[in-house]
Amino acid sequence: MKTMDIKKVGSYMANTPHVQENRPVRPEEPPAQVPKNLDAEGAEDRVQFSREALELARSRVMMDREEIRTEKVDALRQKIQDGTYTVDPQKIAARMLDEII
């Protein structure tokens, strides 16, 4: 098995030219000017949401609705147990027709 002599690594790095040291120095460029048609006065900001963000927003709305529905179901369940729940056949028929049409 061969062994490597690592004592020479430090001297090797000292003799290696560094890219940063060999790079010529450039004069600093002035900051870029913003064209007048893009300055803040007449600019319009736009936001475009990804499909995933829109789906996440919809799911959050649905989760909030589920809480409301849970409360509604609990209230209806209580009415049924109390015997105070009544069904309006006209409303049921109207909603069924609305879904078909």
Helices, strands, pairings?
Elements: H1 9-15, H2 19-22, H3 51-82, H4 89-100
Structure explained in plain terms:
By secondary structure, the chain is mainly α. It has a domain at 53-101. It has helices spanning 9-15, 19-22, 51-82, 89-100. The model has no long low-confidence stretch (mean pLDDT 76).
Q: How would you briefly describe this protein structure?
A:
It is built from 4 helices and no strands. With 101 residues, it is mainly alpha-helical. This is Negative regulator of flagellin synthesis.
Task: Name some characteristics of this structure.
101 residues, mainly alpha
Number of helices: 4
Reading the helices and strands in chain order gives: HHHH
Number of distinct beta strands: 0
User: Ends: how far apart?
Assistant: 85 Å
Rg over CA atoms, rounded to whole Å, is 36 Å
Class inferred from helices and paired strands = mainly alpha
What percentage of the residues does DSSP assign to strands (E)? under 5%
In this structure, how is the largest beta sheet organized? none
The average pLDDT is 76
The amount of helix comes to: 40-55%
Can you tell me the residue ranges where pLDDT is under 50 for at least 5 consecutive residues? none
Q: Write down the overall geometry.
A: elongated
Region (Disordered): 1-44
Domain Anti-sigma-28 factor FlgM C-terminal: 45-98
Family: Belongs to the FlgM family.
Keywords: Bacterial flagellum biogenesis, Cell projection, Cilium, Flagellum, Repressor, Transcription, Transcription regulation
